[in-house]
Amino acid sequence: MATAYSNSTGNAPQGVSINDSRRIFNFGQRVSELAPQQSPFFVYLSKVAKSATDDPVFKFLEQRHQWQRRNFISKTDNDGTAKDAADTLKVVCTYDKYGNDLTLGGGTNTAAPQFLLVGQVVRIGGKAMKITAVTAGDGVSAAYNGSTAATYTSITATALETVAETDIEVGTEGQVIGSAWGEGTTDPEGWKDELYDREGYCQIFKTAIQLFSGTSLATRYRGRPDEYRRVWADKLMEHKMDIEHAMLFGIGAANEGGSGPLRYSHGIVPYTEANGKVFNFTYAGSVYGDFIDAMKDFFAPESGNSGDKLVLCSRKIIAWLNKLDADSFLGNTLTTASYRLDAQNIKGAFGHEVTKINTIFGNLHFVAEPLFRGQDENLAVAVDMANVKYRPLSGNGVSRDTHIVTNVQNNNVDGRKDMVLTEAGLEISLPETHAVMKWT
User: Fold this and answer.
1) Do 248 and 126 reside in the same domain of the chain?
2) What is the total count of domains within the chain?
3) 213: left (phi over 0), alpha (psi -120 to 50) or beta
4) Among 129, 143, 196, 290, who pairs with 62 as Cys (CB 3.0-4.6 Å)?
5) 274 and 130 within one domain
6) Is the torsion defined by CA of 152, 107, 390, 59 positive or negative?
């Protein structure tokens, strides 16, 4: 097969047509501009969230700053009654040492807080106490470096105000509120949060024109005289839509294929359903207040959120948002909370019509996603664009971003066959900053 080609992938010079023999044309910066309304997610990824990778299995780290949280829950009741009385409590938290929220997806697991240190002042059930001793539960050392993870942390604290026995029960919430040390005291212990390791995969997309014989290339057809160019336009769109589908619905995986490694990119919808937030709304009753209730948690700054979300949704949901009848978003909202509503239709930066809904916590930018139809017509996905990246493979001077490889047919064939190729994947970090929204 005559498929060998130069390692130098470049843009076609001005005036050079695709008919140049065995050229590679880099369309990486332009393919997203083809009918942007049909592939909004790919357009936004290409325009504002594109970052090349030099490895088809790209690893990245997530940092969740636990100093913004440092909250915990009492696992035992308080057994002290007097001010300044020492008391020992077992406490847990709802996130692990990486800051991953253990309650996502309905989880009920807890972990041992690693941020509690001697000398800290904590507030539990509205009462201030100073920690005088810290040990890890289940016999694990306080350094938390053992092979067995602690399931709770045991703290001994001195109350700074009167604490009744009933002030701290099982499930009472607590928070670190600083530290206090006497003059001439020694240095305290330290702690650190851990970086969470994830990985993504570059998927190889290929779209080819079927072989055109030399005769068909020279034949003038009705309608569009050059059949080869007509088919080429459709194939570019087909290739772009394949990428859009994968970025939305792909299940990330890597395994051995027939002749080498086979990789599949993560898709934002299944990845967020598994690792992020899920909110449920109804067509008949949901109003602006329901968005407020959901967004107060979704936009929490300690999760690493930005103040804006791109919400890709079906045309059915876009219609529901903009209707004024009794079973629509505007119809329901205007009769109950019109003085709070801030919804407007604006022109998007990349040719899309955008319905913007402002909440006190952040903005939702609804854009119609044509691929959310049929089984997905009641679906929307809210994407924090600061925490996603489109990762085309590029390294050693070779770019695998979208490009056209011409004349891949055998040398002895009286005809021509071309191919569009892309090797790229989707990086999704801090999945709790994204959400799947479902309507019923």
Assistant:
1) no
2) 2
3) beta
4) 196
5) no
6) positive
Tokens at 224, concatenated: 């569009």
Angle between helices 40-48 and 227-249 (to 10 degrees): 80
The count of other CB atoms within 10 Å of the CB of residue 333 is 21
How far is CA 43 from its chain centroid? 16
Looking at the structure, tell me whether residues 53 and 70 fall in a common domain. Answer: no
Note down pLDDT in tens along the chain; length 440 residues.
Answer: 333 333 333 333 333 455 555 444 555 555 555 555 677 888 888 888 889 999 999 999 998 877 667 999 998 777 654 444 557 888 999 888 888 888 887 778 888 898 999 999 999 989 899 999 998 876 454 444 444 567 888 888 888 888 887 888 889 999 999 999 999 999 999 888 889 999 999 999 999 988 988 898 899 999 888 888 888 888 888 998 999 999 999 999 998 767 788 999 999 999 999 999 999 998 887 777 788 888 888 888 777 788 888 999 999 988 888 775 556 677 666 655 544 555 555 555 555 577 787 778 888 888 999 999 999 999 999 999 999 999 999 999 888 998 888 888 888 999 988 898 999 999 999 999 999 999 98
Residue 212 lies in a domain: yes
pTM: 0.82
Q: Are residues 36 and 118 in the same domain?
A: no
Helix (H, G, I), strand (E, B), or coil: what is residue 279? strand
Host domain of residue 118:
66-194
Q: How far apart are CA 42 and CA 242, in angstroms?
A: 10
Which is nearest to 305 in space by CA: 437, 430, 436? 430
CA distance 381 to 272: 8
Q: How far is residue 339's CA from residue 9's CA, in Å, rounded to a whole number?
A: 56
The answer to whether residue 345 sits within a structural domain is yes
Residue from 421, 418, 389, 424 nearest 402 by CA: 421
Residue 12 domain flag: no
Specify the amino acid at residue 46: S
